[in-house]
Amino acid sequence: MALAxxxxxxxxxxxxxxxxxxxxxxPPVAPRYRGRFAPSPTGPLHRGSLVTALASWLDAxxxxxxxxxxxxxxxxxxxxxxxxxxxxDTLSRLGLHSDEPIVWQSRRxxxxxxxxxxxxxxxxxxxxxxxxxxxxDSLTRVHARHSTLAYPGTCRDGLHGKTARAxxxxxxxxxxxxMHFNDRWMGPQxxxxxxxxxxxxxxxxxxxxxxxxxxxxxxxxxDITDIVRGADLLDSTARQxxxxxxxxxxxxxxxxxPLVMADDGEKLSKQNGAAPLTLDTPAAILAALKAAAxxxxxxxxxxxxxxxDDFYAAAIQVWRERFxx
Length: 325
Ligand SMILES: [Zn+2]
Description:
- This protein has helices at 2-6, 47-62, 83-94, 109-121, 136-139, 193-197, 211-221, 234-246, 282-295, 308-323, and strands at 34-37, 66-71, 103-104, 125-128, 166-169, 178-183, 187-192, 200-203, 226-230, 253-257.
- By secondary structure, it is an alpha/beta fold.
- The strands form three sheets. The chain has a five-stranded parallel beta sheet with strand order 3-2-1-9-10, with helices on one face.
């Protein structure tokens, strides 16, 4: 269990109230499934993001669960005006409706501020004065494993006259740094936070909240039990599990689906030529859904279905047989 591996984390002696040092002996009660689809409004939904939307929706429906849309519109420099409404319109055309009001990260700054204040009070966060180049690993939402060096902990014991630029979460040392989790698609995963990541940024030098903090706070406050998302975020999962433990939040289950790749070998995106979905007829909607289902490895028999709602009913059934429910 991932939680067990963080209980050996270094917690300052004066952090008596910290969740890492307190143990709840209440036996866990399986809560009702709550999942989410969390697009960033950096462009219209395309056939790659449809795969993720469909997988998360199917998993929620297969578990008779709740499916919530969360708009991850925090990274203001990257957000495109109108893209959020465009995504919501596309989801509506597909018949994928959020079961609860849509959550907008841009309206939740006070919640992220509170989490950072708590972590700071518990001695788990420290200011970092390193330059942008040194913290580049945390500036992008996604980075490939091994593509960046772990933050070396330069500012762990003080700024040494530098100005605070960003705020970092202290990760455990030695064995406690090895995070383990089981991905429902990818299988057992391990990441060493100390050697592969280092103390990671929660609030960036440009004043923006880091993706890692916002997503963990939101998953906790929305009582998310299951996270289904693209495999580009597999590399962030160990950090998020550690941060959940730091905040006293339960760890959700994870399922990372294979990415749709562009011709350049990168994740399909607006930048490398992903076309917006054209969903102006029922046939076009069904064709887009069938392509997404094929990418997810669902049976070719689904291709014979002529109506969207019949397709969904059959897809939920095969998903349930494959992933439980
Ligand atoms: Zn630093």
